[in-house]
Design a protein that fits this description.
The complex is a heterodimer.
Chain A: E1 5-12, E2 15-22, H1 27-34, E3 53-56, E4 59-62, E5 75-77, H2 91-98, H3 108-120, H4 127-133, H5 145-158
Helix pairs in contact in A: 2-5
Chain B: E1 4-9, H1 13-22, E2 27-29, H2 35-41, E3 47-51, E4 61-63, E5 69-72, H3 77-82, H4 84-89, H5 91-97, H6 103-106, H7 111-116, H8 125-130, E6 134-139, E7 142-147, H9 148-151, E8 152-154, E9 157-158, E10 165-171, H10 173-176, E11 180-186, E12 197-206, E13 211-220, E14 227-228, H11 230-236, H12 244-256, H13 267-297, H14 300-316, H15 323-331
Parallel strand pairs in B: 1-3, 2-3
Antiparallel strand pairs in B: 4-5, 5-10, 6-7, 6-10, 8-9, 11-12, 12-13, 13-14
Bound molecules: FE2/S2 (inorganic) cluster (FES) (2 copies).
One FE2/S2 (inorganic) cluster (FES) is lined by residues 42-45, 47-52, 62, 64 of chain A.
Chain lengths: 160, 332
């Protein structure tokens, strides 16, 4: 087809962006290739693994099955957006390290963003609820136990 | 890059209808979680797309003056599950779509898309059948309403002509008022899996006579299209509410459904599971209907209070199956 572009405006990690995107482009490709946000990983590209998870208007989505053109007017956060002003990690990232919830690290950005949205809700979470809300992220290394432990730990700290 | 032949965005339903007429080979895309994957897999490669996801009218749930509930086709699963009207009037539907894929997919996929893809495993379908919803479809010729049975033609095929758009799923007032329901999805894994078999039961009870007044039961993946079980339903109607009811339901269902052998599960296994999930979903639906009736009979004042409380606690509560345990405690 003849190239079809669309001008979009969105806020990515707090910064306003105006971009001309190809209508065939996924949000995943836009974030990685146009904005250099390589924490967003390309795993399966069919919405199974969650490696490409980003936060869009407060909800997690798989950016591989979302067109870049749809990001118009939206607010997007990737892992890079969680970084503190002096490069500090967030509490949940620290907890992942403490609990040994990271091995190869490919799935980690997606897991952190899923955990972030879940923890923001502020409610007390059972392990069952954590599992349900992290079900859209796959990890080939850790066996999940430590990931659930990390989320549980931060949740407990915040609800003490 | 997705392999697309063209992409157009509609701002209104009329625009969508026009775009589909102008591009007769184009397909409708809404949430995208099915269509984009099919393009990626090559099944729909090279298609044109008309997006209806930006049409504001399709993103709302509204209660009409006559009590009919209009659910916009572009409502995402997660928004449906958390919507106050859905939670209050047809919680079973919100719970059913909460079983689709994982959280990220539920934030993308829509109820309209789930129905229009015509998959036998669609998590919304059994409940939409059991609630006897009507589909509001708009096209060049105007608006038409369809029931679910005539909409599902076969696996992946629905009765929607080029140039027609499903705008709303309508739950008529008389189909939800006084009814309660429960959906069970049987799959190998707890999440990110499609159903091996699923069952949605919607029922109404007569508390004074202690009988099952009305029941509707639909299975997913038991046949080429979602399957109601009219013989079972007829036989169950009027039955007293006691333990034997559930065994009876299981037996009747095993006689009536006719599942296939497939690599996912054998016919014998599906028959066994079919009876079991029929009994369990009926049991839970009856419990819920009973709780609802008891509240209603206690009078309107109390009812309001209970409802508000339920909504408040419900907001912080996860919608998961364990909810049933709570009901059980309340009932006994
Ligand atoms: S890359 Fe998007 S879900 Fe796997
Ligand atoms: S740490 Fe390797 S995939 Fe999760």
């Amino acid at each position: 087809m003849p190239e079809q572009m669309k001008m979009i405006q969105c806020v990515v990690n707090g910064r306003k962006e105006t971009l001309c995107v190809d209508v065939r482009e996924s949000l995943l490709d836009m974030l990685r290739n146009r904005l250099g946000l390589t924490s967003v990983k390309k795993g399966c590209e069919v919405g199974e693994c969650g490696a490409c998870t980003v936060i869009l208007d407060g909800e997690t989505i798989d950016s591989c099955i979302y067109l870049a053109a749809w990001a118009d007017g939206r607010e997007i956060t990737t892992l890079e957006g969680l970084l503190g002003p002096n490069g500090e990690l967030t509490r949940i990232q620290e907890a992942f390290l403490e609990e040994g919830a990271v091995q190869c690290g490919f799935c980690t950005p997606g897991f952190i963003l899923s955990a972030e949205v879940l923890l923001r809700r502020g409610e007390k979470l059972s392990r069952e609820m954590i599992r349900k809300h992290m079900a859209g992220n796959l990890c080939r290394c850790t066996g999940y136990e430590n990931i659930v432990n990390a989320v549980e730990k931060v949740n407990r700290e915040r609800n003490e | 890059m997705y392999d697309l032949e063209g992409y157009w965005e509609a701002g209104t339903v009329e625009e969508a209808v026009q775009l589909l007429e102008d591009h007769p080979a184009a397909k409708i895309i809404c949430g995208g979680s099915d269509v984009l994957i099919k393009i990626r897999e090559g099944k729909l490669a090279g298609t044109g797309l008309v997006s209806i996801r930006g049409i504001p009218l399709l993103q709302k749930v509204t209660l009409k003056e006559n009590g009919d509930l209009y659910i916009g086709a572009a409502m995402t699963f997660s928004h449906l599950t958390s919507h106050p009207l859905i939670r209050r009037l047809v919680p079973v539907l919100g719970e059913a779509v909460d079983q689709v894929g994982g959280p990220q997919v539920r934030n993308i996929g829509t109820i309209g898309g789930n129905i229009c893809n015509g998959a036998v495993s669609a998590d919304s379908a059994p409940t939409v059948f059991s609630l006897e919803c009507r589909l509001r479809i708009e096209g060049k010729a105007g608006v038409r309403f369809s029931d679910m049975k005539s909409f599902y033609l076969g696996p992946g095929r629905v009765n929607l002509a080029q140039g027609e758009v499903l705008t709303h799923i309508v739950v008529p007032r008389e189909k939800y008022e006084g009814y309660a329901g429960h959906y069970i999805k049987y799959s190998m894994r707890n999440a990110m899996d499609i159903a091996t078999l699923s069952c949605s039961t919607v029922c109404k009870i007569d508390l004074k006579k202690n009988v099952l007044e009305d029941v509707k039961m639909t299975f997913g993946v038991a046949a080429a299209v979602p399957l109601r079980v009219p013989k079972t339903e007829e036989a169950l109607k009027g039955q007293p509410l006691r333990e034997e009811l559930y065994g009876l339901a299981a037996g009747l269902v095993r006689q009536e459904i006719n599942p296939r052998d497939s690599w996912r599960a054998s016919r014998a296994f599906r028959l066994q599971i079919g009876g079991e999930i029929a009994a369990r979903s009926l049991r839970e639906a009856v419990l819920r209907a009973r709780a609802q009736e008891e509240v209603r009979l206690r009078g309107p004042k109390q009812q309001e209070k209970v409802q508000i409380e339920a909504e408040q606690t419900g907001q912080q509560q996860e919608i998961m199956q364990p909810e049933s345990d709570q009901h059980r405690k309340e009932v006994r």
